[in-house]
Write a structure and sequence with these properties.
Maltoporin, Chain A, mainly beta, single chain
Length: 456
């Protein structure tokens, strides 16, 4: 039975970056793995959606009926306690009844693999990929700086996002641990007011196990992150200040206080390198503090992070101070609740590549509830509030999204889902001419999914 929860929550991997519940991105159900080494779920889906504002404009608004075929696969591989792999892929189409020029295909994939190859070597990799033209499905998790790309998120143009990370851990001695760190991120947008961005990072962490049984460690790490940008259309790109690097050194302690409580605290320094003097040699104290409490049927986590990032759609080096909190709890066998929030301050320390962007603040609140009414019927509710406060004279942007989803298991492997979604955006302050507009939007979707599960 599919619980109507974000993918990462449903898999029991609740982290500060869990996926927003968008029903068009749902993968089908998969049962408990039990003792099976391999669980495979191919699926086919077909649905119809009514959208009363497909271009997210104030007035006049264009409405349409959209046929949404989809197909994909879910794979779970657990050959041993030390190794696990997950792979999800979905391809979906949108066929418009009256706006055939908007017909499109979207892709979403997710890969995770972790393995203790031997007592001295382990590997952990992950990758998340999204390519879509649907405006409100262009971000993956709450820890992304979505407040820096509001324009591309209100445009029916293709956005491609890919976020990958990897760690190779080596234990040369019983207490010494060496991690090789890799990261990659791509944001490719097709709007003239924003920059596309690619970043990759490489680094190392050397740790000493203060408690071998609990794997608590003191560590020092170094990471170099490289940011590159590309212009779209008429974007006024300042080539000298577009690309930059960030070098970060941290010293910290990762400790397991009890079987259910763990924490990670680190403090260090970061400095930038750039061809533009305004963005070169910008230094700042950075750090992080994360605490995770496992509940009997859930998890609570809280984190603070200060680091350098980019200005997203406008480029430039930015210092981000972010607070992230998440809560997931299966209150009863039939009721599951979740909540995620983020508050971030973006301080543009150098000159932005595009326009005037000295400071931003971003707030996101996402509560949700899933209720299994009957053994074959599920109901879920999600609400999202996001607020981005630009520096003046640009306006403050407030977004709200309400989603209600019901699902009925018609028979084994056959599911019928009905969704209602309401979204609204308000701009506060002076007029803005770069593409942001007030809008409201209603969507109703009926989706039939066939998803047989095979266990080996």
């Amino acid at each position: 039975m599919l619980l109507l929860l974000p993918v990462a929550v449903a898999q029991g991997q609740m982290q500060p970056g869990f996926t927003e519940p968008l029903s068009q991105r749902f993968f089908p159900p998969i049962g408990p793995p039990g003792s099976q080494r391999l669980t495979l779920t191919p699926f086919l889906s077909l649905g119809e959606r009514y959208d009363d504002n497909i271009f997210l404009t104030p007035s006049p608004r264009a409405s349409d009926f959209i046929t949404i075929p989809g197909a994909g696969i879910r794979l779970r591989y657990v050959p041993s306690r030390e190794t696990s792999g997950d792979f999800d892929y979905r391809v979906g189409g949108e066929i418009f009844a009256r706006h055939s020029d908007q017909d499109t295909v979207s892709h979403q994939g997710e890969l995770r693999f972790a393995s203790q190859l031997n007592p001295y070597l382990s590997l952990n990799v992950s990758d998340t990929f999204i390519s879509t033209t649907e405006p409100q499905q262009k971000f993956v998790s709450i820890n992304e700086a979505t407040g820096l790309r509001n324009i591309s998120q209100q445009s029916r143009t293709r956005t491609t996002s890919n976020i990958a990370a990897g760690t190779v851990e080596v234990r040369p001695t019983e207490r010494v641990v060496v991690d090789l760190l890799f990261g990659y991120s791509l944001q490719n947008v097709n709007v003239s007011q924003e920059l596309s961005e690619t970043q990759y990072s490489i680094g190392a962490e050397v740790g000493y196990l203060t408690d071998i049984a609990r794997r608590s460690r003191a560590y020092i790490s170094y990471r170099a992150t490289f940011f590159t940008f590309g212009e779209n259309g008429t974007t006024a790109l300042n080539e000298r200040s577009a690309n930059f690097q960030v070098h970060t050194v941290l010293a910290g302690w990762r400790h397991t206080f009890s079987p259910t409580l763990s924490g990670d605290a680190a403090l260090g320094y970061a400095i930038t390198q750039s061809g533009d003097p305004a963005a070169d040699n910008l230094g700042s104290i950075v750090g992080r503090l994360n605490v995770t409490q496992q509940l009997r049927d859930g998890q609570v986590s809280f984190g603070y992070n200060r680091n350098f990032t980019s200005g997203g759609g406008v480029g430039g080096a930015v210092r981000e101070d972010a607070l992230i909190a998440t809560f997931f709890w299966k209150a009863t066998p039939k009721v599951t609740t979740l909540f995620a929030s983020k508050y971030a301050l973006f301080d543009f320390l150098g000159e932005p590549v595009v326009g005037n962007a000295e400071a931003h603040s971003f707030l996101s609140l996402r509560p949700g509830l899933a209720y299994q009414i009957l053994p074959l019927v599920n109901l879920a509710f999600y609400y999202t509030y996001e607020s981005t406060d630009f520096n003046r004279p640009n306006p403050k942007v407030s977004d709200q999204k309400f989603t209600l989803i019901s699902q009925l298991a018609l028979r084994e492997s056959v599911f019928l889902s009905l969704m209602y979604d309401y979204s609204v955006r308000h701009l506060h302050g002076p007029a803005f001419t770069s593409g942001l507009q007030d809008f409201s939007r209603n969507q109703v979707m009926l989706l039939l999914t066939y998803a047989p599960t095979f266990r080996f």
